[in-house]
Amino acid sequence: PGSAKLAERAKPVLVAIASVLRTISNEVATEGHADPAPITEGEFGSNWTLSLARAEAVAAVLRTVDGRGDIIARGFADSRFAKLPAGEGERRRALARRVDIVILPGRGSS
Length: 110
Known about the structure:
Blueprint: H1 10-21, E1 28-32, H2 47-66, E2 72-75, H3 89-96, E3 99-103
Parallel strand pairs: 1-2
Antiparallel strand pairs: 1-3
Helix pairs in contact: 1-2
């Protein structure tokens, strides 16, 4: 919680994803999310800035590996938390702390 640092185990997964993204011309977006707990300390002043930093961290790895500069980073804070399946509190909040990689319809500029 409250961190945009990528877990070491995420990096090889992102490298594999980047190799697939390299083969398509669609635009790609990374969408960062956060749980609804207010941020009271740390480097991020809001869930929005935290979610955007998460998205940018993933986008930066994808851009580096795949060479595409057109990956869009978006932050959604906790705006999509209600769409998660209801369940235990902490497990649900953990699911909210994520980055989605979205392949957009249509062709990109590459």
